[in-house]
Amino acid sequence: MQDMDLKTSVKGQVLAINDLxxxxxxxxxxxxxxENPETSTExxxxxxxxxxxxSAKVLKMVNSPVYGFPGRISSIQHGLVLLGxxxxxxxxxxxxxxxxxxxxxKGLWEHSLGCATASGIIARHAGFDDPEEYAxxxxxxxxxxxxxxVQLPExxxxxxxxxxxxxxxxxxxxxxxxxxxxxxxxxxxxxxxxLPGNIRAAMSRHHSPHMADLYKSTCCVVHLxxxxxxxxxxxxxxxxxxSYLRPEAMKELGFxxxxxERCMDELADQLLDVSDVTF
Length: 279
Ligand SMILES: [Fe+2]
Ligand SMILES: [Fe+2]
Fold this sequence. Notes:
Blueprint: H1 2-15, H2 25-35, H3 41-49, H4 52-62, H5 76-83, H6 85-96, H7 98-104, H8 108-125, H9 131-140, H10 143-151, H11 153-166, H12 170-177, H13 182-192, H14 197-205, H15 216-231, H16 247-253, H17 257-274
The structure holds fe (ii) ion (2 copies).
């Protein structure tokens, strides 16, 4: 009973994300525009470019090697046409929480960028359309950790201490301290922000892709991406453990060890280029 009370109160605190000062107003405006199928990319772009600082960050991000068009996207509108609204929206969210993420957990930004890069590579290798959508799901996959750090700093510190003292993974320690992991926080966050289903699924199921009801392949791609980037120790995600690789995820994508190796070779090359993407 006490545990349930704790969970309910923690959930309330986590969901008080009005305190997260970062999601820019243009995001709402743009989301509303997109709901109308008559809206053109020009109209959407014109709303985004009103915020010049944001536009500059988005342009930097879409031109990073993560998305496969390095240095070739000249405008927000061009980015919208090439990458689609979901990707641009995910990028707006990630650039908006960038400062907070860097403060919340050292190395988490690099881990997220690395996972985005890996997820794009894996999706391309699996032959999926729109690999950029997988990349942006990878970019946002650990956002729940930022929310804990910002909303619940004391419990966050306890999680970090538990990781160290008990030599646990961050995910395990979250479950010990909060009663749930960042995947659950991601699910609340995704619903709250009304994110597209594929991105929400990967955010909430990247640790348990075999249990995904929807968008299983996206969950499996991000699961493998997370695994690979941790193997390379590019950035950190709260602990230095090797994450468990779910064999079901490889099976779902039809991957053999040789496919994993090929993706990891490509990732090793690309990580050199993405290491300096900051704002
Ligand atoms: Fe995670
Ligand atoms: Fe991760």
